Amino acid sequence: MKIIIVANSPKKSFKEMYHLNPSDYFIGLDGGAMELLERRIKPDIAIGDFDSTNFLQEIEKNAIETKIFPAKKNETDLELAFMYLKNIQGATNLNIEVYDALSGRLDHELVAIRLLAKYNEYKVKLIDKENTIELLKEKKVGVVNKNAKYFSIFPIGEASISIRNAAYELNNVTISENDTYTVSNAPLKNDIEPTIYVHSGMVYLFTIK
Hints:
Helices cover 20% and strands 32% of the residues. It is of the alpha/beta class. The chain has two domains: 3-129, Thiamin pyrophosphokinase, catalytic domain (Rossmann fold, 3-Layer(aba) Sandwich); 136-208. The strands form two sheets. Strands 4-3-2-1-5-6-7-13-9 form a nine-stranded mixed beta sheet, with helices on both faces. The longest helix has 13 residues, at 106-118. It starts with a strand and ends with a strand.
């Protein structure tokens, strides 16, 4: 089972990118709950302050559960979803896909990316039509789709990484937040997927489709 979270970016990608698996657990954030309902998917829970949708009554009627928060709060709706998951008994090592959290307000997009590090006990992917963003932790291996156009790596602080089967390879090199040479790497044209090894630290992996 995956956790599918649908946020409320003005540029929608969920309907096109997500392939239905009825066993998934669905969370709609604010107007993202309507995106689920429009695909005839009943949200297991709708979460948010619902200040950006006019369909709250319809959402409450159709979602299995609805949690409404005040508009004046410290957390984004996406963080409220992560906090909700932390309170579910046994909710560890979850695989989470987040749709429609990118391609909107840049500040919200940046917070969504930073939440991957804050809640790094989960395996989270932020997905839209152009990008997939995920966090790779120490001693973990990331694999890039061989059909990707590009991929970029951004460390949190400092990290030591190796890159294999890519246009630009590295062997246990330490990179910092000020380094820019791990941007716009690419798969080789040999049907072998690029691999990123994180020897120490944590990095964001951006895959550009």
